[in-house]
Amino acid sequence: MPQVRTLPPPEYVPLAEVTRSGIRESVHYGAVVALSATGGIAHARGPVHQPMFPRSAAKPFQALAVLRADAPLEGADLALAAGSHSGEDVHADGARSILERAGLTPDALRCPEDAPMGRAAREAFLRAGRAPHRLLMNCSGKHAGMLAACRARGWDTGTYTSPGHPLQVLVRETTEEMAGEQVAHTAVDGCGAPQFALSLAGLARGLWRMRSSPEGTPQRRVVDAMSAHPGYVAGTDRIDTELMTRLPGMVAKIGAEGVQVLVAPTGETAAVKISDGDAEGRARTLVALDALRTVGADVSPVQDRLRADVHGGGAPVGTVRPL
Predict the structure, then answer these.
(1) 241 and 235 in contact (C-beta within 8 Å)?
(2) Residue 18: closest CA among 7, 28, 9
């Protein structure tokens, strides 16, 4: 185990409350930042300038680096490379297809074996008695894209997850360029690829820059692919897919440990980090949507997602709402 850096706890602020039968039961703390359509910080609460791990919310930056390395990805394949898929058959088949076109097999993947993330896909997986597989891991599309980039550039495919590999150096440079700040720390993500620490403001700024780039540029191609193919970014009954389906033109990407970034069709951008990790996924989306609404974005098509029910005895008895 690496030595743990001792840092003071971030000064997170209350962002959402949970009420049950008329009394507050718990509070989610965290940080949230929202940019106006022109890219300036228009709303901020909590430590939005301190380093944090975007986790999978950084995948659009990684997909951009893959494009810059000449990986031949577009459309649904590009959305899959920028996504955290559910492990449905269409996702595994997509990752396999990317590899096959690069002359590779799934054995080249360095992400761990896993079962599907999506509930329906996982239930079908268990009923069928299938074994975990790298293609089913939610990051297999990203890893397949990285391998395709390595083949396009003639880079080694056996060490592509090493921070010193040319591809990961390009990912870091791309991340810093989009975020407008230097990476604060490098870690190992759950899939084995490098994870670069940024501020929450940097995460939002990076996605805003990609969405605000001219059509046809690599930056814009990534986010346009995501919003055009939301089922490949996440999957059935997943929040990112739902938001982008119900609000066309939106870009949505969650990350582990309570992270989510949203870009409205009109350019307003919000990024949130829930400090407790938001394991049930009940706080981050409503906080992010509330931040978008605060800076003037129209979120009315998904306004029901600004609240979540708390149940007791099978019926709603309270709510989760932004503060």
Answers:
(1) yes
(2) 28
Token duo for residue 164: 């010193």
Q: How many Å apart are CA 217 and CA 206, to the nearest integer?
A: 15
CA distance 111 to 144: 10
CB 133 within 8 A of CB 91: no
Report which secondary-structure segment, H or E, holds 123: helix 119-127
By the 8 A CB rule, do 231 and 90 touch?
yes
What distance lies between CA 92 and its chain's CA centroid?
18
Over 90: is that where the pLDDT of 10 sits?
no
Structural element, H or E, at residue 14: strand 13-20
Note the maximum CA span of the chain: 62
Beta-carbon count within 10 A of 20 CB: 14
The residues near 4 (Cβ < 8 Å, ≥ 6 apart) are none
CA-based end-to-end distance of the chain = 38
- State the Cα–Cα distance between residues 87 and 259, nearest whole angstrom: 21
CA dihedral sign, ordered 285, 224, 198, 34: negative
Helix-helix angle 200-212:166-179, to 10 degrees = 90
Query: Among residues 152, 166, 10, which one has the least CA distance to residue 71?
Result: 152
Minimal CA–CA distance to 54: which of 273, 239, 223, 285?
273
- Torsion, Cα 136 88 283 319, to 10 degrees, reads -140
> Residue 6: pLDDT above 70?
no
Angle at 55 between CA 257 and CA 245, to 5 degrees: 90
Residue 119 pLDDT grade (very low, low, confident, very high; cuts 50, 70, 90): confident
Residue 146 confidence (pLDDT) above 90: yes
Place of tokens 């599309």: 141
Q: How far is CA 71 from CA 191, 270, 309, in A?
A: 20, 29, 43
pLDDT score of 148 more than 90: yes
Q: Quick one: pLDDT band at residue 4, thresholds 50, 70, 90?
A: low
Q: Are 277 and 257 in contact (CB under 8 A)?
A: yes
